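3.2 Worked example (two chains)
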Amino acid sequence: MASPVPSRVSGEAALVARWGAGLRGRLRLEDGRMLKVVFPGVPGGGSGPDYRGAIVDAEGDLLRGDVEVHLRASSWRTHRHHLDRAYADVALHVVEENDTGARATLHASGRAIAILVAPAVQTCERFSPPFTPPCALAAARGLDASPVLERLGLRRLRAKAARAAVITGEGGTGQTLYTLLLETLAGSANRAAFGAIARRLPLGALLEAAEAAAEGVMRPLAITAHLRGLAVQLVLQRAGLRPMASPAKRLEAAGSLVARLWPTDGEPVWPNTLVPGVRMVRLLSVPGVGRCAAIELAVNAVLPVALATGTWPLADAEREWLSLPAPGTYGKLRRLEGWLGAGGATPFGTAASLQGGLLLHAEYCTKGECGRCVIEA
C-alpha cells in the first residue's frame, strides 16, 4: 500500500469546511501551545467571521470567540479585518500558510489573536465526523422544537417592544412607527442613516410637506422627493447592494408606504387601517415592498410599536405575531435549521419561530451552550 501523500486544500471554502468538520491530528498554535477544539462554533452565514462562538483550549487557556479562516495569514490585513469591528471578537485565526511569520494576528485594538496553521490533508485520511449537537439528535428522535421556538420568539417581540418604547418616549406613536418602518426598509447597510432621516424629517413635517406639493404631483412621489432630498445630505452605502435594495429604491418604497398608511395630510398618529385582524402583509405590500419585506416590516416595526404603546392589547399583538408566516430562513440560521429539521420537521415555518431561532442562535448556539440548551430542557 502506498504511503500517504500530503496534499494541500484547494480554496478557502475547503479550509472553512475542514474546520467545521473537525481538523484531525495534533494541533499546535504558532505561539507553541497545543490546541484542543472544544466547540468549533456555528457558521457565520454572511459577512463577518466564518464561525461564531467557538471554544478552544490552548493548554489550559480557554479561548472563546469567533474563528476566521484564510489561506494566508496576511489576508487578515489585506481584507482590512484589523479595522473592522465585526471581527473584534475573533479568538482564533486558522490559515493554511503563515506567510507573515508572526506568532499572532493583531487587531487594531492591539489584541493578539492566536494563529493555527491547519495540518496538511492526507490522501488516506478520514476526517472525524461533523459536530452534531444534542438538538439534532433529539430532532431525529421526533422532538418538536416549535413550542420552545415560539416561546423564544415571544421574548424577541417583547425585546423589540422595549426598544420601541424608548423611541416612543421621544416622538410619539406615529413617529415611532415611521422611524422603525424606515429603518427596516433600509436593511442593515443603511439602517442608521434612514433612522437619521426619520429624526431630521419627522412624520408630521413630512405630511405637511406632502400637502403643500404642487398640484398634479402624486402624493407618494411628493413624499419620496422629500425623503430623497434629505438623504443626499447623508453618507449612504450603495456598493454591493442589489438594485432593488439601493437607497433610492428603498426610499421610493418608503414614500409609497407612508402614503398608504397616512392617506390624508392629518395628524402623525397611529394609522387607523392598522387594527387587529387586518391582513397586515397585504396592507404593507406596496410597490417596492414584496411579501417577505412586508413580513419584516410587521415583525420589526408594526407589532413592536403596537405592543409598546398599548395601541393593541397584548393578546392581539401576540396572536398576530404567532400567525405571521416566515419570510424565509436567514443565512446565519441555515445550520440550526438543518439540526432542528433532522427528523423531517420544518423548524422555522412561522415568523415567530424564526425570531425564536435568532434568539436561540445568539444565546446558546454561538456560546457553546449545548449542554443547557432550552430545546431539550
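3.2.1 Second chain
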Amino acid sequence: MSMVDPHALVADPFFPRLKLLVIETTGMAFYADKDEDLARIVAARMEDLGVGSCVRYLDLVTDKDRGRDEMDALVAELTIGETYFFRHKEQFDALRDTILPDVLARNEPFRRLRIWSAGCATGPEPYSLAIMLKREFGARIAGWHVSIVGTDINQKFLARAREGRYDEWAFRATSDETRQVCFEKVGRQWAIRSEYKSFVNFQYHNLTRNKFPSLIDNIAAFDIIICRNVVIYFSPETVRALVPCFRESLVEGGWLVMGHAEPNMELFRSFRSVNVPGAVLYQRVDQPVSPAPVVPLALAPLHPCMPLPPPDLPKRRPSSRPPIPLTGKLAAVPAVKPLPLAAGMARARELADIGHWDEALAICDRVIGADALDARAHFFRALVLEQKGEVEACEVALRRAIYLDRQAVLPHYHLGLFLWRKAEAQGAQRSFRNVLTLLERLRDDQPISDGDDLTAGQLRETVGMHLNLIGAS
C-alpha cells in the first residue's frame, strides 16, 4: 500500500503552496486545476524519498542546498517527453517547401542558418530538422555555419537527447529507409549518425524564467523558431508575454512554427500569418527602415524581453601589464574615437540579439580599438564571431578575454562549450572546472555578471551536467 495517499495530499493545507511553487518555477499553469494529477506525481516522489508529509516535502524543494535537485526530479515527472521523429508531417512539409527555401535564399550571402527547437524533449524534433537539412538541402548548404539549438527544462530529457539513442517507437512516422541511412543499430536502440548530430546542440532553458533574446544564452537571432505543444501548458497571461519574446528572438523575415493546439491566432497579430496545407506559419516582417547607423550610440528604449544594459564600469586603473600583441583582423582595427564602454557594449548586444552580427562586431572592434585591454569587449566579440562561423577567431577572442580577466566566469564557460563542440574533451573539462572554482565564492542566488539573470547556482548545475556528459562520452 502506498505510504502517501494522493487524495489526502490534495486536502493537505500545505499543498496549495507546493502547487504555486511548481507553477511559478515551471510556468506550467496546466496543473492549476489538476490537483489530483499533480498530487499523484508528487506522492510518487515523496514515496521514493521516504517523505511522509507535504510540509516536509515543501521544506525539501525549497532547501537552498537540496531543493534544486529535487525540483529537477519533480519537473522530470511533470513534463511529457513522449515524442517521435517527423511528428506532424504537415508542418515538416511546410518547413521543407515554404520556410527553408525562403530562409536559405535570404541567407545565401551570409551562408548561416540558426534554428531553435524550444521544448525539444528527448531530441527527435531538432534531429529531424538536421536530417531534413542534410538530405533535402545538403548540396545547397555545404560549407554553411548551421546551428540547431534544442532547449528544455527537463535535464533528464536533455541528457537523453545528447546521447541520441531511440527505441523503435520513436520512428513510427519515419520510413525504414530514413532510419537505416540516418541511424545505426546499437543493441535494441537506434543511434543517430554523427553527420546528422553535428548540427545540433542541446542546452537548458526555461521559457518562463530565463530572459530571451539573449546572446549570452545563445538564444537570439534565429531564422526559425519551432515551439510546438509547449505553451499549451502555460497560462494565457504567460503566453501573451512570451509571444513578443519569440518575435524579438527572430531575425527580420524569420519564421515561428507553433503546434496545432496552440492558442488562438489573435496572439500572433504582430506576425504575418501564412496558411499552408495543414498548418499556419508566422513570419516576422518589420516595417522597412533605413539601416541603423553604428554611431551615435545613444540607445533607444529596449524591448521588455531584451536584457538590461550593463551598469557603467568603474574607471580602469593604469595597468602594469605589457600590451598584448594583436594579430589577424584585430590588428587591423584603425584608431577611432573612444566610445563610452557601457553604452558601446549595450548597443553591440542589442544588435547581436537581433542578428546584426557585422554591426555588433564593428562596435566591439571600436571599443577594443580604444582600449585593447577591455576583457568584456573581447568576450562579446568572441560570441559574435562564433555566430558568424569564424571559429578560429572566436577561440582567440575567448582566450584573450580570459587572459585579461581570469576571474570572469562566462568566458571560461563559453570556452568550455566551444572546446566541447570541437570534441576537445580535456580542454573542455579544464575550462568547466575553472568555472566551478570561480563559482565557489558565489552564493547560489547570486547573479552572474553579464549573465542575463543567470545565477551562480544555475550555472553550477549546468556545468556539472556538462562534466557528467563529457565523462560518460
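3.3 Remarks
Confidence is low (pLDDT under 50) at residues 288-304, 306-338.
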